[in-house]
Amino acid sequence: MSSTNPKEDGFNLELRVYLIQYLVLAVFIALGIRFYVLQVARHDDYQARAENNRIRDIPIPAPRGAILDRNGNLLVDNTPAFNVVVLPEDITNKEETVNALVQNLDVDRGELLAELNDEKRAKSQPILVKQNASNADRQWVAAHELEHPEIFVETQPQRLYKYGKLAAHLLGYIGQVNPKQLDIPAFRDAGYKSGDIIGQGGIEAVYDRVLRGKDGMRRVSLRWISTYRGLLSNSFTPRTRPVRVSHSTRRTARYWRWFRCLASTQMCLRAMWFQVRIARK
Predict the structure, then answer these.
(1) Residue 44 sits in the same domain as residue 168
(2) Which listed residue, 10, 122, 152, 181, has the most CB atoms within 10 A of its CB?
């Protein structure tokens, strides 16, 4: 028969009680430290995240300034256009979103994936996927708003060149800033970021800092299903200073039209004279 020592049993029981007490104390200390981190140390961070789930700042692209000749005649202006954009931070399934845009809106898959995977672009910045959306495109986006809340239509300013391609080498053109340009220190110092529309040639590029304006911001309140609940504030401060060209481009365009008319008239007269000579022979 095995004998039991009451002193050893009491010591073991007391040891177990102490271990349980220390374990409970350690758990409460860990909970207290975690509570301090959540409520005190990182209070501002978590509060900002909570506000971001309820309130969102949506950028409003500023219209570019007009380009005038020295007589004040308008050469380049803006016109409203309907563009389809996608908001990366609202995407829950990237593959489904990409397939929907490619199959229904004829968006290039490679370019779309490159924009979505761009690490330099902020997740809160909308990505332009299709310009000048047709009525059918806008109807498809509206019909699938609940399925794809990350896809929506925005009215954005688009460049309007009064004389078409005439003097294109002088006026230039605009386009999205590319990754190679963002690697240039001068572009980074100017405040350009991925997705910005900038001048890529001619006057549009030389006077880009004057023409591009300053983007505004629309702050909206969201429901949990990522739909707009209401407009909280609207701050829009575009720069509207126009740029005047040092010479009269309109006069140059008028002379160019006259030259084309004279050239076509001269060709017609030569053709008539050639027919008369054939008839005399």
Answers:
(1) no
(2) 152
Residue 44 included in any domain: yes
Strands 67-68 and 243-244: parallel
Nearest CA to 77 out of 161, 156, 155 is that of 161
Cα 116 from Cα 239, distance rounded (Å): 29
Residue 231 has a pLDDT of 46
pLDDT digits (tens, 9 = 90+) for 245-278: 555 455 555 555 555 555 555 555 555 555 555 5
List the domain range (segments joined by +) for residue 79: 63-212+242-250
**Count of the separate structural domains present in the chain:** 2
**What residue type is 261 in one-letter code?**
C
Q: Are 158 and 132 in contact (CB under 8 A)?
A: yes
Count how many Cα atoms sit within 13 Å of the Cα of residue 54 in the half-sphere of its side chain. 6
Is the distance from CB of 133 to CB of 111 less than 8 angstroms? no
- Short-list 227, 191, 224, 193, CA closest to 209: 191
- How far apart CA 10 and CA 20 sit, in angstroms, is 15
Whether residues 37 and 132 fall in one domain: no
Say how far residue 49 (Cα) sits from the centre of its chain: 21
- The answer to whether residues 70 and 174 belong to one domain is yes
Can you tell me whether residue 228 is helix, strand or coil?
strand
Q: Is 58 helix (H, G, I), strand (E, B) or coil?
A: strand
pLDDT averaged over the chain?
76
